[in-house]
């Protein structure tokens, strides 16, 4: 291992050597490594694009974790983990390993050398290999902590959970147990978890490869609790992105908070110092991730008239314009009346109930994906929307809105929530804080930073 | 509806009008329709590529169905259907509807007008809408018939199945009930089916949209029996394509039959007139589709040494070269010996047992995909290879090889076959045989062709 170098010490940042990750000779290494950690975005994929040639990478480090305001990539693989260890030290070690691997993978490197670089040939490769010839595909990895990490899981009889890691007094106030909502039919095997990792990329093989290698590195400390594959991002997080469609065939996320709206991000997404007491200062600059697996009654929807569909949503199906007129980005005019004095946008329509004017001005940064998980025993599609939102505080930014929607929104007739998770998402590792060896691997010492480190300070 | 016109009558083929499919105004119609049916390939995706701008379409018509030698797209959604009707006429009507929809979808049109073009607004849209803004993404739709379509499903006590459609005497000899293989642990809910539709595209939303709309058109006649999503094609079907990797991290399909190998296709893929008797003449120019859901023991594999992995496969993990030396496309030298006189490529290695020299010269056209279907209750990945192969006759081109592999190939220790299907794939609809109205919709009369029509002649 070469001596540590700080990428900030070298003008233009370091050039990572491919040599040390080759192991087995040319042609096998990951591509697109000509970018230093902490450098500005090097190349990217402003629109959804999967190509063998794209070398898009996003920096792993920054004030906030990547994968939140990053222009939404087109594919998702999200995994929730439960810890099998009860050792705080092992938890920290796991987060250190994950940091190292995530810093490498997001820059287009392998999880580790293919074939032990200097060790015996008779050991498993450090990387599972299936991403070897692929581009980084804009991979981001975003880490979060579930409520059970802090206070364990209550027993069925209501007995309190166990504080396994001495973290109970660091529980952020917003990391509540979500209440039951009207449309909930939650499967515990698709809900909650101690840890979450959101992998987004423009190639599903890249996202799956990342989770697989992180899961492998967790062996002995944590196991996967549930996972969700998603495709066809259902929100834009940048004004440069086209508004996508959900499986109801409607444009979704027109009013989403976008990366370019710095003030709105500060108001609605990032946890500010003013929100927290001393115990949860570690979360400042972070966010909360709300994950909801929303199954759509596709077959029923498909037999609904166009008029009914548009009235339920409150927008036209083609253009996505509010029924009060205009084009997609025209503000809805909820007061406008049609024949007989009824509002053009129905009072129980989705667009009205989800609009900031119905929610004390609250806006969400949504980052959801469509999912299709095969068919149920009746041949019906098990498909829908995997809702992901990053919010400043779920008590103000999700619970009131979902309470209203689940009880009043007529669209709910076609929706069932089948999975749920809420996670505190720590801030990022500051630019330049990761010290890299010349093989691109962060050099970890007792002092080196890792994702979520603030929680353990 | 305009009067039928034969696209062959017009130089350069017709330009399909977008107008009639718009229904709701501009911006909603499918894109990439500037291509006539039966025209040569217009634009395409020679390498895996998903972009919002690609307008790649493949012709729906031709001597063979598309989706067999078509350069393998990067995503798959395959659905097996069971018929709920017992009416031969309804079966034919279903195939006619599917032909119309497939001819439209593969050319980038919607399944039907969004919002009834001339009908009442208070009817469901003819297309579900979620592909409205997307490119055709190289969509192909390939149709096949299962053994149960001809002879029904035998009862658990061995009683013969029912010939519901008067097709028993048209059963092709090769459409056998596959024998039990050593590594089989088949789930009936993931196996067989009366009909199959393979949707391949470079965007999963396009493939899922196609199956969804075909499924919708089958309402009352057929229901989905099982489906499989796949990504990261694990074979190349064109010499222009890079060899992809499976979830073992190895290159897969190096020796695949490629579209460019016309003689090999004739020898190994297409059903020749010399193979069939009068009852199955309808299958000449068609093929057989073998589908096998092969779960990989990922976690166990990941703990196996590199040496062991390479010995099991018989190739290097990095380059994919045979262990006898050379590069990926070097022919394996099975006679070459290493230290102690043992063959460099083990006698029970996958590459040796799957090689044509071990299989009477047989080669397959493989078209498989990786799959990841979440995790089992132990947190292990439910992932692997969805094996698809098109062959001239499964009795010579699949059963002997699989019998040998499942009993001798040491790689089988890491594999379980969990689903299986065998389907007869009829030939294509000849170029120019589909008569199109000026909205791009095939004009169906009692005489107009449909997929599988030969079976009913």
The radius of gyration computed from the alpha-carbon positions of chain A, rounded to a whole number of angstroms, is 23 Å
Q: Biggest sheet of chain A, strands in spatial order?
A: 2-4-3-10-6-9-8-5
Largest interface: A-B, 77 and 78 residues
Largest beta sheet of chain A, briefly?
Answer: 8 strands, antiparallel, barrel
Instruction: Tell me the helix content of chain A.
Output: 10-25%
Q: What is the H/E string of chain A?
A: HEEHEHEHEHEHHHEEEHHE
How large is the count of helical segments of chain A? 10
The overall strand count of chain A is 10
Query: What percentage of amino acids of chain A are in beta strands?
Result: 15-25%
- Give the overall shape of chain A, derived from the CA principal axes: globular
Cα distance, first to last residue of chain A?
A: 28 Å
- SS-based structural class of chain A? alpha+beta
Q: Please tell me the overall pLDDT of chain A.
A: 85
Family (chains A, B): Belongs to the DyP-type peroxidase family.
Protein name (chains A, B): Deferrochelatase
GO molecular function, one term (chains A, B): ferrochelatase activity
Domain Dyp-type peroxidase C-terminal (chains A, B): 243-428
Kindly list the characteristics that best describe this protein.
homodimer, alpha+beta, Alpha-Beta Plaits
Commentary on this structure:
The structure is a homodimer of 457-residue chains. Chain A has 457 residues and is α+β, with helices and mostly antiparallel strands. Among the domains of chain A are: 63-154 and 194-230, Alpha-Beta Plaits (2-Layer Sandwich), CATH 3.30.70.100; 270-430, no CATH class. Chain A contains ten helices and ten strands. Chain A has helices at residues 19-22, 88-105, 147-151, 204-217, 262-268, 298-301, 306-313, 350-354, 394-397, 399-408, and strands spanning 49-51, 75-83, 140-146, 195-201, 222-233, 287-296, 365-366, 369-375, 381-391, 415-425. In chain A, strands 2-4-3-10-6-9-8-5 form an eight-stranded antiparallel β-barrel. Chain A is globular and about 75 Å long. Chains A, B: Its cofactor is heme b.
């Amino acid at each position: 291992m070469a001596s540590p170098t700080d990428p900030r010490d070298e003008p233009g940042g370091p050039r990572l050597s491919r040599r040390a990750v080759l192991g087995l000779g040319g042609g096998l290494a990951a591509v697109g490594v000509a970018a230093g950690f902490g450098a500005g975005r090097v190349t990217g994929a402003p629109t959804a694009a999967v190509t063998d040639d794209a070398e898009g990478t996003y920096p792993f480090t920054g004030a906030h974790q990547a994968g939140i305001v990053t222009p939404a990539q087109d594919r998702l693989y999200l995994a929730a983990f439960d810890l099998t260890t009860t050792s705080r030290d092992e938890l920290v070690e796991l987060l250190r390993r994950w940091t190292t691997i995530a810093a490498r993978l997001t820059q287009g490197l392998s999880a580790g050398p293919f074939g032990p670089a200097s060790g015996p040939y008779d050991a498993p490769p450090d990387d599972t290999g299936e991403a070897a010839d692929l581009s980084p595909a804009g991979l981001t990895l975003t880490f979060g902590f579930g409520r059970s990490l802090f206070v364990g899981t209550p027993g069925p009889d209501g007995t309190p959970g166990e504080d396994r890691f001495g973290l109970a007094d660091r529980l952020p106030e917003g990391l509540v147990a979500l209440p039951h909502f009207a449309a909930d039919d939650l499967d515990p095997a698709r809900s909650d978890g101690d840890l979450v990792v959101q992998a987004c990329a423009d190639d599903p093989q890249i996202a799956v490869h990342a989770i697989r290698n992180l899961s492998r590195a967790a062996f002995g400390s944590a196991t996967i609790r549930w996972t969700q594959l998603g495709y066809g991002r259902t929100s834009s997080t940048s004004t440069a992105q086209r508004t996508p469609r959900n499986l109801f065939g409607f444009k979704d996320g027109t009013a989403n908070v976008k990366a370019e709206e710095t003030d709105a991000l500060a108001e609605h997404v990032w946890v500010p110092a003013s929100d927290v007491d001393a115990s949860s200062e570690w979360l400042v600059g972070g966010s909360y991730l709300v994950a909801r697996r929303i199954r759509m009654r596709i077959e029923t929807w498909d037999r609904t008239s166009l008029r009914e569909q548009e009235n339920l949503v409150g927008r036209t199906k083609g253009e996505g314009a509010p029924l009060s007129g205009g084009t997609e980005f025209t503000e809805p005019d909820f007061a406008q009346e049609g024949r007989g004095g009824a509002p053009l946008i129905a009072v129980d329509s989705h667009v009205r109930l989800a609009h900031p004017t119905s929610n004390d001005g609250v806006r969400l940064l949504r980052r959801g994906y469509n999912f299709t998980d095969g068919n149920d025993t009746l041949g019906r599609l098990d498909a829908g929307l995997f809702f992901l939102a990053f919010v400043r505080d779920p008590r103000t930014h999700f619970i009131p809105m979902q309470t209203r929607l689940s009880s009043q929104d007529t669209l709910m007739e076609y929706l069932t929530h089948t999975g749920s998770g809420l996670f505190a998402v720590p801030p990022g590792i500051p630019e330049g804080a990761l010290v890299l060896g010349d093989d691109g691997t962060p050099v970890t010492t007792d002092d080196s930073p890792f994702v979520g480190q603030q929680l353990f300070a």
